[in-house]
Amino acid sequence: MPGHESQMDDKPAWQPRYPGSGRLEGKVAIVTGGDSGIGRATAVLFAREGARVAISHLEEDDDARFTADRIADEGSEALIHRGDLGDPQVAKDLVKQVVDKWGRLDVLVNNAGEQHPDKDITDITVEQLQRTFQTNIFSMFYLVQAARPHLKKGAAIINCTSVTMYQGSKELLDYSSTKGAITAFTRSLSENLIGDGIRVNAVAPGPIWTPLNPFGGATPEKLKTFGEDTPIGRPGQPNEVAPSFLFLACEDSSYMSGQVLHPNGGTIVNG
Predict the structure, then answer these.
(1) Residue 140 confidence class, pLDDT cut points 50, 70, 90
(2) How far is CA 228 from CA 49, 207, 209, 223, 239, in A?
């Protein structure tokens, strides 16, 4: 966990699907978990739209370098940061490196996460429970705390929640719980920061084909039909989710805060 995209036979589609239009020109963004999956697709799309992008990753150096090279291919600059964002000092170091390098921070995408399937709540160990919350929600607190002094009027924070927050998931009890916390965090942080002109929103993907699932995030049985229970009838691709992050990061969404977008294959949720 979370796995190497470079080792997947059926590689996710991360490539931006349309030309850039300068919607993030001159901006600086952090995308956590930016080495692969939704994070990679978002980082490269941001670069196409003119942003300089810092990507954080846990240990997948090959994936991170590939993403950084694709950011460079878009004519932008990348910064790679390796470390466990569940450690508050790592979060501080990431923000410091970004500000030292580029002198500003405009967009924070809290995307990094992990999940572990368990069929019974008694199978969830104390270590797993604490680890999942540490990675999925504590890291968001640490990063926002580190970034807050550098976020000015017009900045944007986008958090990655999940369809499991709305539907529940019988095999992802701890993961779904963190996603509920992320949604509440998003709405509360929006109320806290909107007076300073900083917008906070979230994206709640459905089943998206990323390294998270085949490298231990889903059971073998679930992988056989992954995403087929959506109304569209298939899993989504990272480049079908990244535009939601872009929309919430740029001025197109200037009248939105505390909201959640749902690229989930047509599943109707109350959110």
Answers:
(1) very high
(2) 32, 9, 12, 10, 18
Q: What is the dihedral of CA 107, 76, 45, 253, to 10 degrees?
A: 40
Superfamily of domain 19-261: NAD(P)-binding Rossmann-like Domain (3.40.50.720)
Q: Which amino acid is at 223?
A: L
Residue spans of the domains in the chain: they are: 19-261
Q: Of the residues 18, 166, 175, 255, which is catalytic? A: 175
Structure tokens at 34: 């930016």
pLDDT by residue (tens digit) across 29-69?
999 999 999 999 999 999 999 999 999 999 889 999 999 99
Any catalytic annotation for residue 175?
Answer: yes
pTM of the shown model: 0.93
Are 257 and 199 in contact by the 8 Å Cβ rule? The answer is yes
